[in-house]
Amino acid sequence: MERSPAPSRSTVRAIEVARRLALGIILSLGPLVAACSRGDEAPQEIPLPHVRAAQVAMRAPYGRSRHLALLQPIRRARIAPRYGGLVVELGVDEEQEVAEGDLLVRLAAGDAFGQLQSAEGSLAQARERVRDTKQELVRSEELVEKGAEAARQAEARRSSVVELEGARQQARGQLVQARDRLRASRIVAPFAGTITRIDTEVGEYADVRSPVLVLADLTRLSIDIKLSAREAALHDQGKLDFVAIVRGEEVPVTLDYLATEADEGTSTFTARLVLDNLDEAGQRRFRAGETVELHVTGERGEPRPAVPATAIRWAGPSSYVLRLDRDGGDTVSQVPVRVLDDAGDLVTIDSELGPGAWVVASGPLSLRSGDRVAIAEVYGQGAAGVGVDATGREGQAIDAPAAPGGG
């Protein structure tokens, strides 16, 4: 068979150029054909951006601080003996509740009994000697008056009486010390509470420098925090509030005291709050050492216009809000503002906006003055900080001011 001659290079190049030209014509005609096929369809409208609307309210600025602290017993005593001694009896167990005056620990008191008996004997002997010497002094004074005895002997007996009186007083002191040492061998509860720790056993030596147990009053718990100078001033004006949260539950607390002098080297003041730890059945609710979240809030200043924090927008260092204009068919316009302080769930501002004006609480960041929007929700008609749709739906309809553009 004869082979056909191979196409030349110029022929191949011409074929490739023709192929590309045909492909370009096909691609360029495609959109034209599609446009012609949709020529009878209506043009589609671009949907308006949806926003949440809010009204400017009047609020007083609020100071707010958050503290994490530990619940502590209102009273705690680390009990150690006043005199060292051998432990012969433990009258309590850990976590046992005791009343004031209950026996906790008893120490060996053999030496205390001996000292008590010795002191009682010394006192009795001193009393007898004083009585005998006083009688001799009376007889001596009678003899001196009769001239039968020299006055020098009477003076000597007076001196003996004074010395013996001193010895009697010393014996009384020794007796008091012996009785006190005997009482100290019985360690009793100084107040009602719960034994939270025992650090001794029967047969051990209890030293005066080492506590043998810990007693705590857990019926009330304390919370210690540091307040700023501004918060202390608000407290003096009666404008400070405290909210404590334990285990996710809000519990009432009362201010026990606020220091009148700042902590050394600082401008903060120590405050102690107290939490009632007994429920209606008399049972303890919380344990000492649990974490408590404490919120401190207080008004400061006069009411000012306030908007949701999400309504504040920024253009570089400048802040502004988008006002909703009812007359413009729900159009927005940019209004410069100066952000001031927190006011609960809102922030106070300094601007030309007055109470009742409508602003965009949240929406697309691309919104600019003159843009039209659709209001999807109204801020603040339900619970604070919860968006409610324009019909007021949050489980049921509610009465609320008409949203801008709503007629």
Mean pLDDT: 78
Main sheet, how many strands, which sense, barrel?
Answer: 6 strands, antiparallel
Total discrete domains: 4
CATH architecture of the largest domain, please? Beta Barrel
Strand/helix succession: HEEEEEEEHHEEEEHEEEEEEEEEEEEE
Q: Please bin the fraction of helical residues.
A: 25-40%
Cα distance spanning the termini: 93 Å
Biggest sheet: strands side by side, in what order? 2-17-21-20-19-18
What's the total count of β strands?
24
Give the tags:
Elongation Factor Tu (Ef-tu), domain 3, 4 domains, 407 residues, six-stranded antiparallel β-sheet, alpha+beta, disordered C terminus
Structure description:
This protein has four helices and 24 strands. With 407 residues, it is an alpha+beta fold. It folds into four domains: 52-58 and 303-389, Beta Barrel (conserved putative lor/sdh protein from methanococcus maripaludis s2 fold), CATH 2.40.420; 65-73 and 218-299, Efflux pump adaptor protein, beta barrel domain (Elongation Factor Tu (Ef-tu), domain 3); 76-107 and 193-213, no CATH class; 110-184, Helix Hairpins. The strands form five sheets. The chain has a six-stranded antiparallel sheet, with no helix packed on it. Strands 4, 6, 9, 11, 14 and 15 form a six-stranded antiparallel sheet that branches. A hairpin with a 2-residue loop joins strand 18 (313-315) and strand 19 (318-325). 20% of the residues are buried.
